[in-house]
Amino acid sequence: MLNVITADAQTCHRAEYRVGQECCPMCPPGNRVNKHCTEFTSTSCEPCADGTFLDQLNGQTECFPCKTCDADPGLKVKRPCTTTSDAVCGPQDGFFCVDRRGDGCVAAQKHRSCKAGQYISRRGTAITDTECSDCTGETYSNGTFPSCQPHTKCESEGLQQIRPGNHAADSECGPKHDSSNKTVIIVPVILVAVIIVAVAVAAAVMRKRKGSRTGIFLSLV
């Protein structure tokens, strides 16, 4: 039954709202007031349109617009909007919340990237940033490792070190130069050269002898 405000009753009941001198029944959550009550009629309510909501008993003539999580590039929808509740936003993957409101987030920031020479000592979460620590000793990290890795020992792998490692990069290894292979290649080359020289010398000697015999023969004739 409609309550009329009098001098003895200055306020409406908790489930009512005041319009002029009258107390009208509120609309339930998810609905707005289409027509206020009168002395002879009750409040007329209608559901909120898509993209709007009202989460409490109310005397509102307009529903509230739902929050848009994509207004911040680091946010995503954690819980979608309904006619009885607003959307709840959360940080996207790779981001963490820097401004929390209840169980939602209104601003997010990208997780820190560790530098070369650092490792990820604690991965970032939806509410905390990534933590980085420096490598020490003979270890390295490119900034994406969960721990620093020891430098490769080239000699232990049968290789030779081309470039020593540092905190930002591993040692660079390459194949060893095999001196025995060089010897195997060089010896035949030397032998061939010696044979060629010997053949040339022998040929020259034979030509010289042949020339000498020819001269003797001519002198006898």
UniProtKB/TrEMBL annotation:
**What parts of the sequence cross the membrane?**
185-206
Q: Name one GO cellular component term.
A: external side of plasma membrane
Q: What PROSITE patterns does UniProt report for this protein, alphabetically?
A: TNFR_NGFR_1, TNFR_NGFR_2
Q: What residue ranges carry the coiled-coil annotation?
A: none
User: Where do the TNFR-Cys repeat units fall?
Assistant: 11-45, 47-89
Superkingdom per UniProt: Eukaryota
Q: What is its main location?
A: membrane
A Gene Ontology annotation in the biological process aspect, one of them, is: defense response to Gram-positive bacterium
The record's Gene3D superfamilies line, in alphabetical order, gives:
Tumor Necrosis Factor Receptor, subunit A, domain 2
**How does the protein associate with the membrane?**
Single-pass type I membrane protein
Instruction: Recall the taxonomic lineage recorded for the source organism.
Output: Eukaryota, Metazoa, Chordata, Craniata, Vertebrata
Q: What is this protein called?
A: TNFR-Cys domain-containing protein
What InterPro entries would the database entry show?
Fas_rcpt, TNFR/NGFR_Cys_rich_reg
Q: Which UniProt keywords apply?
A: Disulfide bond, Glycoprotein, Host-virus interaction, Membrane, Phosphoprotein, Receptor, Repeat, Signal, Transmembrane, Transmembrane helix
Every TNFR-Cys domain range? 11-45, 47-89
